[in-house]
Structures are given as structure tokens and as C-alpha cells.
Amino acid sequence: MRLEIDAGNTFLKWRLMDAQRLVESNSILTKDFKAQSMASLATYAVQQILVGSVAGVENNHQVQAACISLWGIDPIFAKTSNNCAGVKNSYLDASKMGVDRWLAMIAAYKKVNRSVIVVDCGSAITVDYVSAKGVHQGGYIIPGLRLMRESLLRNTAQVRFDQDHTGMAMRPGVNTTEAVMHGCSYLFQSLAHSLKDEADAETELFITGGDGELMHSMMASGLFEPDLVMEGLVWVCR
């Protein structure tokens, strides 16, 4: 069996695969991860552990220690590279690209073998473009919904609002809370509509990440693939 782990800035997800069959999956806040978090999997005969992580060195050490403690296996951490599985990286220094972007791009491209737009709606929203020939054409990194709101709290003295306000309304706000929350919703939906317009018959649109399902519902098109980053691990860690 193969254990795949996606350690993001906010959530750490894992899934246990028996060949192509999903056996079990779960997630936890990255900051709360401990060896015991995956203890329910200890009885499985795990033979390989693949990790895609942007969570930092300390968290990587925790994941590594947990895997060695539970299964006696040193996990393989995915790394970005100049070329992999038919996809060419556009960065001059490939190591500067977040491995989650690289994994998602490769997984998406290998699914359809044509041009793709890959949108990962996590703590940050990343948008990456890959041509039909597998050439990464660049991308965008944008604050996610939570970061948009938190940045206003951190960096402005006068803007104070209720962070527990829910919903994705976009009408102009009549108080500060509504103005902030609806404004962030407006930007998020504007991005969704813009990306929907960019996709055509020759280009497949993939959406993933914690807020990916919300963006997918706004687009009413494209493919929502919640495990896209983990799906790239088998290609990158070969």
C-alpha cells in the first residue's frame, strides 16, 4: 500500500492507496499534526510514503518522524524540477516554485494530455497555465479568501470587522463587516468568472484546494479535483 500526504499551509491531508483503490483518507490542521494523527493507519501494510509539502522544515520533520515511528519507513518528499512527466517548468530556478503547484500541474496535464489551467484555492490562490506541449507558461499567486480578510485586519488601523460573518454575498456593504466580506467575495467570484472565460474547447480547467469547491460552484464548469496535489506524487516521486 502507498500512503500519500499533502502538507499545506493550513491543512495536512493524507490518503492510503492500494494500487488505484482508495482505502482511507483524512485531514487535520497542519499546526495540530502529531504522530498520533495517523495512528489509525498503523495496522495497514504501508510499503511506500510520498509527501508533497509546503508546510516548512519543522512540520516535515514531524511527518518524517511519524512515518518512521509508525511504519519504519522514511518518506519520499517530492521536489520541483526542470522537467517531469512531460511537463517543462518555466522557472529559471525550479526549486523556487512551490511543490504543490508542480504536483497539481503534472497531475492535471497527465489526466488529459492537452493544455490545462490549474487553480488551487488554498491559503493562497495559485493559477498555472500549461500548454498542449506540456510547457508551463507561467501563473499567478493571489491571496486566498482568508488571507484577503486577515490582511485588512493586520495592515489597517481603522478597518475592524466581524470575522464570523458568513456567506458569499457581493452587494455593496452598508457597514464595515459587509464591505470587507462582500468585497472579498466579489474579487473571488470575479476571478472565477475570468478563469471560466479563459478556458475553451482546447483547454481543460482544473480546480482544487480548500476553497476549490466554492470556486467550482461559481464557475459551473471545469473539473473539481480535491486530491490533485496527491495525484501528482506518483509522477514526481518516481
TrEMBL record:
Quaternary structure note: Homodimer.
Domain of life: Bacteria
Entry's family note: Belongs to the type III pantothenate kinase family.
Protein location: Cytoplasm
Record key words, sorted: ATP-binding, Coenzyme A biosynthesis, Cytoplasm, Kinase, Metal-binding, Nucleotide-binding, Potassium, Transferase
Broad class of where this protein is predominantly found: cytoplasm
Protein residues bound to ATP: 6-13, 123
Organism from which the protein derives: Neptunomonas antarctica
Reaction(s) catalysed by this chain's protein: (R)-pantothenate + ATP = (R)-4'-phosphopantothenate + ADP + H(+)
Identification of the protein by name: Type III pantothenate kinase
NCBIfam families for the chain: baf (TIGR00671)
Residues holding substrate: 91, 98-101, 176
Cofactor(s) demanded: K(+); NH4(+)
Binding site for K(+): 120
EC class name: transferase
List of catalytic residues: 100
A Pfam short name: Pan_kinase
Gene: coaX
Enzyme Commission code: 2.7.1.33
Gene3D superfamilies: 3.30.420.40
Function comment: Catalyzes the phosphorylation of pantothenate (Pan), the first step in CoA biosynthesis.
An individual GO BP term: coenzyme A biosynthetic process
Pathway participation: Cofactor biosynthesis; coenzyme A biosynthesis; CoA from (R)-pantothenate: step 1/5
Coiled coil: none
This protein's GO CC annotations: cytoplasm
A single GO molecular function term of this UniProt record: metal ion binding
